[in-house]
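A sample copied in:

***
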Amino acid sequence: MSDATAPEPKRVDPRYYVEGATWEQDIARRNRNSRALAWIVAAVMSVVAVAALGVLALLVPLKTYEPYMVVVDKTTGFVEVKRPMAEGALTQDEAVTMFNVVRYIKARETYDPRALKDNFDLAQLLATGDAARELTEIYSPANPNNPVKLHGTNTEIAVNIKSVTFPNNRTALVRFSTDEKSATSVVTRNWVSLVRFRYSGAPMRNEWRFDNPLGFQVLEYRRDQESAPSPGTAGAQQ
């Protein structure tokens, strides 16, 4: 019996090793690219985060806290938020405009037989258009509700300003009360007025400039009663 011839081992195609090496190199290259991209993204995000922190640090000193006070009127229950005045140019400064608005309302609403003409002239100086025309009609001799006819010489009306707010730069909302004093009683009434105004650069007489140097003019004036008078009957709207 003769020995069987041993089979030759199967040879591996050399291309298999070449393809395997190529695949391994491709995987390694992809890993390197992924790591490089990850580092680039991380670096960019770090720069963005540092920039954001820098901007935030610059904005922190600009943050301000504005104190304010809430006031409740015991008579009417009206709630008002009082804030500090803002800075601005003289002709638009809130304090100057507030002064002019208050001066107009006091001149118009005050009734003092001894200063009647002075108050009327000042109110007319600070008004124009409908506001000036309405005031002239109120004090017209033909008006049955002329304050002179209603109050005579033995009654005075004093004005107490409670607050002045500005819904916009050409409108004021004013809350005030009037005390009507006669020989026998004092009647207090609460009012709210809407005043629309402007500053005019139109020429005017020198003596008028002394009392109104900035050319403040009330265009429209509306007054509404805020609550029932105490004591006495309701007053007429002007």
Observations:
- The first strand starts at residue 69 and ends at 72.
- The CA atoms of residues 142 and 149 lie 10 Å apart.
